[in-house]
Amino acid sequence: MSETEALRARLAAALTRARDRSVVLTECVDEQDLTAQHSPLMSPLVWDLAHIGNQEELWLVRDVGGREPVRRDIDELYDAFRHPRSTRPALPLLDPAQARGYVAQVREKVWDILDGASLQGRPLERDGFAFAMIAQHEQQHDETMLATHQLRSGPAVLTAAPPPRPVAEVPTEVLVPAGEFTMGTSTDPWALDNERPAHRVVLPAFAIDTAPVTNGRYLEFLADGGYRRRELWSERGWAHRQSASLEAPQFWECDGAGNWWRRAFGTLAPLPADSPVVHVSYFEAQAYARWAGRRLPTEAEWEKAARWDPRTGRSRRFPWGDGEPDETHANLGQRHLEPAGVGAYPAGRSALGVEQLIGDVWEWTSSDFLPYPGFSAFPYREYSEVFFGGDYKVLRGGSFGTDPVACRGTFRNWDLPVRRQIFAGFRCARDVPGE
Ligand code: AVJ
Ligand code: FE
């Protein structure tokens, strides 16, 4: 098989895996559930489905393929910038059968276009970028649909094996020595615009938690009055805590005996003490860190802990090396429906010994979502550029609901600091003066 044929096969596999997952997420509920609004923060599932097809049509059928539009008339309906999520149920959307037919029709054309694509030449096609971008886009919406499932009420419809159990105790924190490292990438062919270009960053020494903060530790913060103590919260965080009446992470429930439970995908289960806390906002993470006498890591600190190899001075693609994740490295790809206990992925450890950076939970960082020096929007401003400016906080590492195609050591996610329907947790860091 030639290199181009191997690339074609990898792109086809990524597109197929994304579609299989979109089908899983949309075939397990009835029409009513597909078109309903499960939260004003989310689109109806049927909007995500047709939007996936519409992006694929715009970039692969029309742009790369140079073909005639399949449905130009629906572009406006599925433009995320025209209609806020809360207004989408009222739009004259394709119904579930029409949406399924549409995405299948687009995909048929894409197979033909992929067959004939040079995968060289202009940047959009080089190394199959546009096809990989569309696979990542579908997987990102699949994770969003998974979050919609988590908000949906009713009995469980999704199933998955439980995550692996911890195999070893992990030390509390890892010391990262002062010095320069390479952040971002200029060479990863499927990296998105905001991950580029590679640039050198100098950091003072710091210490970072070996693993994400667990439910057990978070419960100590809660029991110690964490949600009532003004001094632990930032000004904006406290204002939000009050107006939103935050008392605990989303989906936590306390029973009459004072025990905490967690509702996930239609099932109520005892809170697993040793697993990463999930469904907390940036503001809650920040308050916890202050309570613990620590702080959130910056985005650069997170990436150095994940990628920098002190033996070679290089930055790796993933904590464990340059190779793609398999099921021993990280809890990714909706293989499980919850984060794994701390210590469950020793094979995923970084060169510095930091664990579970990839998978389990997205991790809030203290950094605003901003462009790297030398950033240039590609292929469209609305992927990243319109979100720069400081309203959004960066999250790193991916969750149990993130597919490997949309996750790597350089991958940047972002959201508003009040959001907690995403699969987000965090780890803490601290300064190490005099190192
Ligand atoms: C990168 C996850 C913040 O879902 O809003 C999907 C990804 N961009 N369609 C989002 C995205 C366009 C984006 N996030
Ligand atoms: Fe989108």
Automatic annotation (TrEMBL):
The protein here is known as Hercynine oxygenase
- Is Oxidoreductase one of the keywords UniProt gives this record? yes
**Biological pathway:** Amino-acid biosynthesis; ergothioneine biosynthesis
Residue span(s) of domain Sulfatase-modifying factor enzyme-like:
170-430
Q: Which parts of the sequence belong to the DinB-like domain?
A: 14-145
Q: Which family does it belong to?
A: Belongs to the EgtB family.
Is Transcription regulation among the key words of this record?
no
Its lineage opens with: Bacteria, Bacillati, Actinomycetota, Actinomycetes, Mycobacteriales
Q: Which cofactor does it need?
A: Fe(2+)
Q: What EC number(s) is this enzyme filed under?
A: 1.14.99.50
Catalysed reactions listed for this entry: gamma-L-glutamyl-L-cysteine + hercynine + O2 = gamma-L-glutamyl-hercynylcysteine S-oxide + H2O
* Pfam name, any one: FGE-sulfatase
